[in-house]
Amino acid sequence: MPLGIGIMQVSRLVREVHALEGASPWIAVSGPSADALATTLAARGDRGAIVVGGNPVAAAVSIRLIEGEPTPAELLVLRRLARDETPVIVVRHGGTSAIPYVLPEDVLDGGPEPDIEELAAAIARAAPHAAPALAARLPLLRPAVSRRLIAVTAFANAALAASPRLQRQQLPVLTLAQLRMLFLLGITRGETLPRDPQGLAVAAGPYLAVSLATGIAARALVRQLPFGGPAVRAAVAYGSTRALGAALRRLQELESK
Fold first, then answer.
1. Per residue in 117-132, pLDDT tens?
2. 138 φ, ψ to 5°?
3. Is the pTM of this model over 0.85?
4. Which domain holds residue 185?
5. Are residues 51 and 10 in the same domain?
């Protein structure tokens, strides 16, 4: 494989992507107006990805709709979800006190009706591993999931580029991270990688090529700048990763029109 990228590294990444493609995560919604919220979230998507009143512990994300302050029964459910490490988002109508067992950023103000964009962003944040497969089933989540995926990968690559431990191996590590980002962006659109070697090479080859080209261009830019250091490497890695992700997102949006 080119430039220090091993076949085993790519194989592990492909296996991860295939596992996510075969997953069918779902969201549990409960509380007042749960049916209406489920219908909204499932617009133009798979209604089976939203279960009203289902077992919240088995869900990828549990959305709890609460009127005012949580009841003792609701607190018991939240405690169980926290104990089982199930991501939970509370949409509350009224009430001012803090809600135990839930992160403050995961408590949303329901207002007259929930802010769907804010809720989609909360789902993408709360369940990062399941979010691409959820977005494949629920198109309403795709913008938020894609934005977070690009941002998280860009920040991670910036941190890797600034690390003194990876100065000699930055290109393959950053390239694999970008390749993973591109694959996951494809999953959010319902795309799948072929399982036969020839089809896989045809499908993944362009992603690998563009990731390598981006890394090589970024490395050349760093070397040509009159100043250097960890901050410069981090800025270039961040910018190039974001630009790559944004370009694919734009292309996907144009193809879907």
1. 999 999 999 999 999 9
2. -125, 90
3. yes
4. 2-21+139-256
5. no
